[in-house]
Each structure stands twice: as C-alpha cells, then as structure tokens.
Amino acid sequence: MMTYHIVTYGCQMNVHESEKIAGILKTKGYEREGTLEEADIIVFNTCCIRENAENHAFGNLGALKKLKREKKDLIIAVGGCMAQEAGKAEILRKKFPFVDLVFGTHNLSELGDLIDRRRARRKAIVSLKEERAETEDGIEPVRTSYPNAWVNITYGCNNFCSYCIVPYVRGRERSRRAEDVLGEVRSLIGQGFREITLLGQNVNSYNSDGQGGMSFPELLDAVASVEGQFRVRFMTSHPKDFSEELARVMKKHDKICKLLHLPAQSGSNRILELMNRRYTREKYLSEIELLRSYIPGCPVTTDLIVGFPTETEEDFEETLSLVREAGFASAFTFVYSPRTGTKAAGMEGQIPEEVSKARIMRLVEQVNENTRALSATFVGKTTEILCEDFDEKKGLYLGRNEAGRMGYFASEQNRIGEFVTLKVERANGVSLFGEPVS
Ligand code: SAH
Ligand code: SF4
Ligand code: F3S
Questions:
Q1: How confident is the model at residue 268 (pLDDT cuts 50, 70, 90)?
Q2: What letter does residue 265 receive in the DSSP assignment?
Q3: Can you give the pTM of this predicted structure?
Q4: 145-257 maps to which CATH number?
Q5: Which of 72, 142, 260, 325 is most exposed, with minimal Cβ within 10 Å?
C-alpha cells in the first residue's frame, strides 16, 4: 500500500490546502497518511509570511536528503506560498537538487498531473502559474480536523499591507459563489461536522469582485440558517471593512460563535499609516465598541506586530495600551520580518533585533495578563465546548468554547464531536479545567 506524508507550515488556509493535497494524492493511489520515513511521497506545503517560517521549511527539507538516497522511488514535492515566491523555486532547486516537484499556490489542481509526469520520466519538474482565476478547484479534500471543517470563501488578497507578502504569493482576491459555499456547508453538516470555519484573508470584503452574489454578513446569515446542530466561525476580518451589519448578524444567530478575530497590528496611528492598514486606532476601538453594543463583552482577539520600521518606544507603548484598552481576549504577537518585494522591506529605519525582542517580551507579558483575566471569569461558571480531541498526556478530553478557550475534562466515554457543558473548576492561561454536567 502506498502512503503519503504532508508537512504543513503557515495559516489555516494552508492547513485546508493540505487537506486538498491529500485529496489529490488519494486519487493517485496513495491510500493513507504514513510517517515521514515510510511515505512514498512527501509534500511540503510551505509558508513565507516571516523569515522563520521559511527557515523552518529549509531546515526540514535538508533532512530529507538521506531518505531520498535510501529510497530511490520516493517523490519529494514542495508547494505553497514559499514555492510561489519570486525566485524561490530556483533557490529550492539549487539548495535541494533531490526535490522532484515544485508547484505553486495557483496550480494546486495540476498536482495530480505533475505526479504522473514525474513518474513517467526521471527529471525534476518545476511548475508555477502567475495567477489563478477560478474559485472552484473540484478537489475533494481529506478532512483532518473533525468536528471542524474549513470552508474557503475567498482566495488571495487585494490589501497590500506594506509588510505583507500574501498578495504577492496568493494573487488577487477572488470570491466563491455563495451557492457553492452554501452547498459545501450543507453537505458537511449532512456528514456530521459540528463546526464550520469560513476562511479568507479578509472575509469582510467577500464579494468585492461581485462574484459571490451577496455581502459577507448576508453569507454568514445564510450559513448560520442551515438546518442542523453546528456552530460557525470565520477568519480573518479586516478592521477597514468591519460593518454594523456584521455585528447584527452575529447577534442574530446562536450558531455564530461570539468571538471576533480582528487584527490590529499596531496601536500607533503613525505606524498604521505606514503599514497601509487604512484605519486609525480610534476607528478600531469604535468598531469594538459597536460590536459590544450588540454583544455585551464580546471577546476580541488580534494580531500584533512589533519592530515595524521606524517604530519608536512611544509607538510601541501605544500598542501596549491598545491591548489594555481593547481588552483583547488573546493575541498572536510577531516580530516584524522584512519580506523581499514588499514596500516596508525598502523603508529606512529598520529596527535592530534586540530592540524588537525586548518589545515583544513586554507585549507578550501584557497579552498574558489579559488572557489570565478573561480565563478567570469562567471559573465557577458553566461553558459549552465542542469536544474535538483526547489529550494522551493529560488523559483528558478537550475542546473549545465559543470564545476560543480550551476546556479539558475527564470522561469514560468518547465524547469527540459532542457539545459538552463544563462546570469550570480552574483556569491556567487559555486552558480551563472542569467537570462535564451534560
Ligand atoms: N489576512 C490576515 C492575516 C494574514 S497573515 C489579516 O490581514 O489580518 C497573519 C499575521 O501575520 C498578520 O496579521 C500579521 O500580524 C503577521 N504578519 C504578516 N506579515 C508579517 C511580517 N512581514 N512580519 C511579521 N508579521 C507579519
Ligand atoms: Fe497581508 Fe494585509 Fe492581506 Fe492580511 S490584509 S493578508 S496582512 S496584505
Ligand atoms: Fe498563509 Fe503563510 Fe501563505 S500565513 S497565506 S501560508 S504565506
């Protein structure tokens, strides 16, 4: 029996793309996922959002040389955002001549044919496409995140935030037709999935190309109106396109998780402008206020970058104070990483690494304080989680509540895929521990 092994780097979008890659591999006779050592094909689905994401993949690729030497028929393929990056395919080929296939983000659906071609002749293949127009790839993914299922609503990004490489490696924003999204959601619910996560770099600008047929709040409304017992999440929202309509729809449906992931990036207006984010700190805070006028205390999570070119101590302190003022439930924090080809990489005033490192430590400290404070509010109360896994080390089942808090509990029966109400006894960071009462 032939097996495959996929190594995924980067965001949820990439995680879902790996599920599609697995779907393609199945049609090519690779029947199941195996370990790295036993696999007949290894696919690296890469990310290039920050330098360390690239270094990570480079490091792990190097280690495959030995496997390839021992196993002549092994196929090694590299795809994803880093493969799509200008000039990277040549660098990959030079550094790792044993790689058999390089493919980009725009020709995922050709992967099956590329594998056939590689099997037919023993020459390495590099196949990249500048842009992808279609939004339906006809690939049946092998889903790996039950009870959650990822559903693309848009591909690509038009925003060109000055630090970000995504628009260069994922192309222009394209919206899937609402009826296709809804068809997929209905089918997933029919198959027993209990959580749907709608995916896009900027879900709020869904239908900016007119191809969706309705706005994002309308689509969300329609998804949450599908019959069945499930909940809905979505990411990522861009603050420049947040609307009152979205808050209204979130409030309207019990099925929509009361949580908004709204990346702020910085608390300083001067830096936000240099980042080309097209909102101010004040506008950002007023959006959270508007959201919370519909959904009192609605948790908001965010992404923050420190050490953007020219960032001063004062700018940074505005980011720190934003964390307090917005009361973020949690945050992903990043040190700015210059990406070749982006506007910010050419800016004067790049910040020394030791300054950025000191800042991110202070930021993480502030975020942790928020995290602890919010987790503590659940202690002594009940919260509903969707059980998603069993933690072997802890010997406990786990799942998330709608605010994204991880809840752990002991159970004799397998509860994966069930909604479980937990009486929370204690909290540790983002984790809650308790007793199931239903
Ligand atoms: N489309 C989403 C997120 C894309 S990438 C959005 O707009 O919010 C996820 C996060 O990576 C970003 O929110 C940003 O915080 C971070 N990021 C992107 N480019 C980066 C860079 N060059 N250096 C450091 N962090 C970066
Ligand atoms: Fe990157 Fe900005 Fe697009 Fe997000 S919205 S993917 S940060 S360019
Ligand atoms: Fe995602 Fe990384 Fe690409 S964050 S879109 S996999 S560059």
A1: very high
A2: B
A3: 0.97
A4: 3.30.750.210
A5: 72
